[in-house]
Amino acid sequence: MPVRVADAAGTEAVVPDLNAALQGAFDGDEIPALKTPAIDGIGEVWVDTQYEVSAGKGAAYPSTMTVVDVEGTDKWKVKRKIALPNQKMNNAHNMWASHDQKQIYNTEWHGRSLYVLNRADGTLLQEIELGQDLAHVMTRVDTEQVHVTLNGEDAVSELDKTAGSPNITFKRRIPMQTPGAKQTQPHAHWMGHDGKTMATPNSNTNDSTFFDFINNVIKAKPATGPLPIAAAMNPTSTKYYVSNYLGHSTSVIDMATGNKVKDIPLLLNGNYDPITGAITGPIGGLPIQTPVSPDGKFVITGNTLTGTITIIRTGDDTLVASVACDPGCHGANFGAKKGGGYYAYVTSKFSNRLIVLDYDADNDGIVTQTGPDAPVVAGWVVLADDTAPTDDAITGNKGMGGQGVLPVPNVYNGWVQKLPTEFKSQLTAAQQNPVP
């Protein structure tokens, strides 16, 4: 279909086929020569490669889970791919681990099921149908219950963990709005470090639900920005952050009052000229996953429009740096770096690599856009690998569609203290207790 376009100077032209023009402009970029991080991570990293197509499911049911080793003799290599062809897993989206790290919980965004897998060998343990468009999944620290947001509905599903068993069972739906109010469609929620609270970004109502588990009530529903999509709490559960996908901003919520403190502009912040395209400082557009570092010092966000990773300093909630990412930059999560500190693992929808960001290489708590404290890309892993074991032959979009990313072991405050000895023993004292 022909489309009339104009450049920055106002000169108009007719593009005969917009799809072909965009593909010609953006597709086909080559990944640079492989760069392996000099310092190992700990454990492994799971990635939802949402667009990867496999033979048993076909193009109608894309996605795999790709498991990457980040230490040992096979470090920085793909070790396994899981497609679940018999279940026709549909657009795998986000993951979390049980407290003992033995099970992986995985959602399907274009389906209705939560999958429980054996982390050690990738086998399916359980499939549970919960509702429409499952988005994110996390566990509650004090009860080990599993909470899953229903992005196509108005609630969070709560499931009980069966004692002495890998199984979980459905308990209830928790509405994210009061009766009769507009459907919220919650996406990427976050749970408090002590199990007492939960925060959801509500993509349909431009607000956030701050839920109090102790009193089983909605404590507050602060307004955010347009289309909030991801939330994350600091390690002491005193404030949380919400990325506003269409607002190109991050909202900061005070958990003592439930009120919004400020919006941090990521794009229209004086560092980007929308007329000339000039960039003079850190920027981010269409922000998605936005976790807070386990020690509470930084917020790192994948920005899909600008293809950047932004870094917010939590001390004064200021945007301090951005790093080039890949097209469709999307998922972000923190994993332990061997010897101390953390890596940020970042995925992208339109690239087949996992970026390993050493955002604070000297672990001094200082990050700047330039100079010796600037964040560095320590390396990356190509997520396409025809030699990796798999339960279904990969036939297309190899390694593509990076969405949720889950480092194992879980090193966030509250969860890290629950780790079994095999993982905890590999962590430094500071990593075992990130907020002493």
Element layout with pairings:
Blueprint: E1 3-6, E2 12-15, H1 18-26, E3 44-49, E4 53-54, E5 64-69, E6 77-82, E7 92-97, E8 103-108, E9 113-118, E10 124-129, E11 134-139, E12 146-150, E13 155-161, E14 168-175, E15 190-191, E16 197-202, E17 207-212, E18 217-220, E19 228-233, E20 239-244, E21 249-254, E22 259-265, E23 298-303, E24 308-313, E25 318-324, E26 329-336, E27 342-348, E28 353-358, E29 376-382, E30 394-396, E31 402-408, H2 421-424, H3 429-432
Antiparallel strand pairs: 1-2, 3-5, 3-31, 4-30, 5-6, 7-8, 8-9, 9-10, 11-12, 12-13, 13-14, 15-16, 16-17, 17-18, 19-20, 20-21, 21-22, 23-24, 24-25, 26-27, 27-28, 28-29
Textual characterization of the structure:
The protein is mainly beta and 436 residues long. The protein has a single domain, classed as Methylamine Dehydrogenase, Chain H. It is 4% helix and 41% strand. It contains 3 helices and 31 strands. It has helices at 18-26, 421-424, 429-432, and strands spanning 3-6, 12-15, 44-49, 53-54, 64-69, 77-82, 92-97, 103-108, 113-118, 124-129, 134-139, 146-150, 155-161, 168-175, 190-191, 197-202, 207-212, 217-220, 228-233, 239-244, 249-254, 259-265, 298-303, 308-313, 318-324, 329-336, 342-348, 353-358, 376-382, 394-396, 402-408. It starts with a strand and ends with a helix. The relative contact order is 0.15.
